[in-house]
Specification:
153 residues, five-stranded antiparallel β-sheet, alpha+beta, 58% helix, 18% strand
Length: 153
């Protein structure tokens, strides 16, 4: 019975030395906010670009190829499918995280605008109400004056 549990236990992911190095480079790039993430999900292509560090990564998910480019070299290699899937998972998670931040920022801006508009409308309604009350009072006093007859005798 103990053997069955050992057999079904998931083995830890073991990358080669170069895969560990590449995975480290890519995850460090993803941590930097100045790294742009672009993708063509239908084509399975993902692009990381950091102009400050003059570094680009192209991941061709369908072909399991990763290309690293800096100012001096460009190296493209085909890697194990599971390794490329793990790299893509990290890229997609960061892209999703950034999209959530943008979404939250837009939502907060919209909520603040709606609150300001609401407050402006309340103030405007209060001012209109006060103006309306003044007009009604003026009309009532005018009505009383017209109804009084002037006696000239």
């Amino acid at each position: 019975m103990f053997f069955l549990f050992k057999f079904f236990k998931k083995k830890p992911k073991v990358y080669s030395k170069i895969e560990n190095h590449i995975y480290g480079i890519i995850t460090e790039l993803l941590k930097v906010s100045s790294t742009d993430i672009n993708c063509d999900e239908l084509g399975g292509k993902y692009y990381l670009s950091n102009e400050e560090q003059h570094f680009k990564v192209t991941i061709l998910g369908n072909d399991n190829v990763i290309r690293l480019t800096n100012t001096r070299d460009s190296v493209a290699e085909k890697y194990d499918k599971l390794f490329v899937e793990d790299v893509l998972k990290a890229v997609k998670e960061e892209k999703h995280h950034r999209m959530e931040l943008v979404y939250d920022s837009i939502t907060n801006s919209i909520e603040k605008m709606a609150e300001r508009l609401h407050n402006t409308l309340i103030e405007s309604n209060e001012q209109n109400s006060e103006l309306g009350n003044q007009i009604v009072r003026h009309l009532e006093t005018t009505k009383h004056v017209k109804n009084k007859k002037v006696n000239l005798n």
